[in-house]
# Entry
Amino acid sequence: MPSAVLTPQAIARQALARLRTQADPERARQVQKYFKETVRSFGIPSPAVRAIAAELYLSIKKTWQVEQAMQLCDILFPRPELEAKAVPALILARFKKEFPRQLCAQVKEWLTKNYLDNWASVDTFCPEVMGTLLLRYPELVKEIKTWSRHPNRWVKRASIVSFLKLTKKEGFLDIIYDQAVALFPVDDDLIYKANGWVLREAGKRDMARLEQFLLKHGPAIPRTTLRYAIERFPEARRHELLLRTKAKKP
# Structure
């Protein structure tokens, strides 16, 4: 295939054609039950979406650089369908060795414009892409800490789920726990759940530290966050932590 055909616009068209071919309207209707906000979907299972992204990546990996992958995101992220957002996110992640520092600002712009306007899109994109950026450019930690105060809920969610895979890396637990505390006051169910999810993953690395953290902050922790965070504790310990962190009645 001539390289001239392999533009971001051409790959975007191929991606949409493949997604439409595999669309399942009945499954698409079922997808909505996992979201409180209204979403659109082709109704394609995640493994099939990943296979499409992998196939398209193979067709461009020798000719593209990260800039073309970012352009593909610019083209497809505004699409309403979950899968149309996932494909370019998965392709961009394949270029992680080339990620430039300025990609962080671009990610924030995509989020602020609500191009990734649901938990699934944010969670597909940010742990891989932002996690890589934070590892490569540690100075970006200071920037992402400010995202917890951003008015956009997707920027806020990204401020914690971007650390998901970094729970396994040396030197990040202090940062993750600080970020979790910064999000405790945020009144948003999607933030509660994301925060608890990342705390639960941090606990896999050091369960004793997670327990100490939960007991220290106690009533300040939203109960949904707490329930997610303690899922891997034994049942009796979960019950005890729920009691010990509960706000005392005056």
The chain has a mean pLDDT of 95. The CA atoms of residues 77 and 85 lie 5 Å apart.
